[in-house]
Write a structure and sequence with these properties.
The complex is a heterodimer.
Chain A lengths: L1 E8 L1 H6 L2 H20 L3 E6 L7 E6 L2 E6 L8 E9 L3 H8 L9 E6 L13
Antiparallel strand pairs in A: 1-5, 1-6, 2-5, 3-4
Chain B lengths: L2 H20 L2 H22 L5 H23 L3 H12 L26 H8 L6 H12 L4 H7 L4 H17 L12 H21 L5 H21 L4 H14 L25 H16 L5 H13 L9 H14 L3 H13 L3 H12 L9 H12 L3 H14 L3 H14 L3
Classes of the chains: A alpha+beta, B mainly alpha.
């Protein structure tokens, strides 16, 4: 089963880090990505640019509504993701716990709907 | 053969095996219900089989095979076909050899696998909400019906049913595994399991509202679960600590409420109503847990409870030792409630003024501002010091914070006494 791991972190904390600290963090992420690639769990993963670069689009009555943001009230922002292949939720949890940001931010684990399945897990 | 009794005692065990074989909580539950229905008719005519548990598993399993065959024919369900093939490829997997060819259930019971531990660990998975863990454990491991659960937790039946459906859906959709945790995961996972059992016990023990008879059953179920864990876990010392704690608390259940439903404090309880057999077992278990290396909070709390339980009179209570044990508990787990308990123990060990001083300090804590037991404890110490005016003021403060009816009535009686009425 595939799981999407959404990495939430306080963006302001990241920008407050020194260049040395940021480099150390990148190195840790690099090592982690390599580990889960070698173990065969890695499917995809990227860091996202800051929330200030985000744009939201909605289509209402055929009309496109484009806005800056979102700027949610939440303390933590979505800062990156991994898509992993794991045997079950326990394996997914143990992978998520090793994501460097788990130490100060939080990781949301979401099972991916497989092709031919509906969101409720029924075979379409 | 009393089918209802069998259901009560063995449904958890049968269900745990069926879930492993079928890989689906709902299907397993449904097939077990059908097997019971068949048993009801067949056993009345033919008499019960030699091994009813194995008979029920075999029958439920055959019904599931029939069901999956029919479904395969009518709907090309990819996932279920995969499961079905896997299922047929392991005809007696986990079963003793020949179990599936033995519908009469002649093979001996001890060769029948016990899957309840993995069922417990799955039901108490931390990825499920605590509420859901509690409900699912009682429903599947203990065989309590949704209706009974709703009654015990004072929620509408539909709410409880929804809670169970959601939990089972998450197990299925997020693929929470049906297995015992690895040795590395075990401490963390066991903590969650023990907490669920303790929550079930407390729900029955502390609640003052609702049907008290149903509540009492929750205590009994928690103790049953505790016994089960002690029997099944390879390292049961922490579970023994919890079981001991529950047995010791429960031993006082008849003495802690008076005939007219009022709360009776430990000090004023009729100790002849305490269940001696349970105290003996709880004390022995506490010692065994500590000897075999239990270091957790349950074993420590059990030690405190054992000191109370084994005191012939309230005056004989070894408060000094109890205060020391609360001190150890505090170092392990910082908690304002434990600090209040420790202060009371210090006071009762002979130094009322020192205990009162500790409570005064605790009063400054933000997190204890709304905690009614703190002014209640202060009031009690002031009463013992014969400072009735101050005691009355504290009882009034406690009354303004208390929400539990039984406690409010108790505090009112104490206030009336302190006011000299």
């Amino acid at each position: 089963m595939q799981y999407l791991m959404l990495i939430y972190d306080v963006e302001a904390d990241w920008s407050k880090m020194s260049a040395v600290e940021q480099a150390a963090m990148y190195k840790e992420y690099g090592q982690f990505t390599q580990q889960i690639s070698e173990s065969g769990n890695h499917r995809a993963g990227h860091q996202l640019k800051p929330i200030a670069t985000a744009t939201t689009v909605r289509l209402r009555d055929g009309k496109r509504l484009v806005t800056d943001g979102p700027f949610a009230e939440t303390k933590e922002q979505l800062g990156g993701f991994y898509l992993v292949e794991a045997k079950d939720l326990d394996e997914a949890i143990s992978i998520a716990a090793r994501i460097p940001s788990a130490r100060h931010g939080s990781i949301e684990i979401r099972p991916i709907v497989a092709r031919g399945e509906t969101a409720e897990g029924k075979v379409a | 053969m009393d089918l209802e009794k069998l259901h009560r005692e063995e449904s958890g065990r049968i269900l745990s095996t069926l879930i492993r074989l079928l890989g689906d909580f709902d299907l397993a539950e449904e097939m077990l219900q059908e097997a019971y229905a068949t048993a009801l008719q067949k056993w009345r005519v033919d008499g019960p089989p030699a091994n009813p548990v194995a008979w029920l598993v075999s029958t439920a399993r055959h019904k599931a095979i029939d069901r999956l065959r029919r479904q395969r024919r009518f709907e090309q369900k990819q996932a279920e076909i995969a499961r079905y093939s896997e299922f047929l490829a392991q005809p007696a997997a986990g079963f003793s050899r020949g179990a599936s060819d033995d519908p009469e259930g002649r093979f001996p019971d001890d060769r029948f696998p016990d899957d309840r531990l993995r069922l417990i660990f799955t039901c108490c998975h931390p990825a499920l909400s605590e509420e859901a863990q509690v409900a699912l454990t009682l429903r599947t491991v203990c065989g309590i019906t949704t209706e009974e659960l709703a009654k015990a937790f004072l929620v509408p039946i539909a709410t409880m049913a929804q809670r169970l459906v959601r939990a089972k859906r998450k197990i299925r959709e997020a693929e929470i595994p049906y297995r015992e945790p690895s040795p590395e995961e075990l401490p963390e996972r066991l903590e969650a399991v023990l907490l669920v059992v303790y929550l079930i016990f407390n729900e029955g023990y502390l609640a003052s509202s609702g049907d008290s008879l149903v509540r009492r059953e929750l205590c009994a179920e928690a103790i049953r679960l505790g016994r089960l864990l002690c029997a099944l876990l390879p390292q049961p010392s922490e579970a023994q600590g919890l079981l001991a704690l529950m047995l010791l608390h429960d031993s006082r259940c008849e003495a802690r409420v008076s005939a007219d439903g009022e709360l009776v404090l430990l000090e004023e309880q009729d100790r002849s109503l305490w269940r001696a057999e349970q105290i003996r077992e709880g004390t022995e278990l506490t010692e065994r847990a500590l000897r075999s290396g239990a270091t957790g909070a349950y074993a420590l709390q059990a030690s405190i409870s054992a000191l109370h339980a084994n005191a012939k009179t309230a005056q004989d209570t070894d408060w000094r030792q109890i205060a020391a044990l609360y001190g150890v508990l505090l170092r392990m787990h910082a908690s304002a409630v434990i600090e209040v308990n420790r202060a009371v123990a210090v006071a009762m060990a002979g130094d009322l003024e020192q205990g009162l001083g500790l409570l005064d300090e605790l009063e400054q804590r933000e997190e204890l501002r709304e905690f009614h037991l703190l002014p209640a404890a202060k009031a009690d110490l002031l009463r013992r010091l014969d400072r009735m005016g101050e005691a009355a003021a504290m009882y009034r403060r406690a009354l303004s914070l208390a929400t539990n009816d039984v406690e409010i009535r108790f505090l009112r009686r104490r206030l009336a006494k302190a006011e000299g009425l």
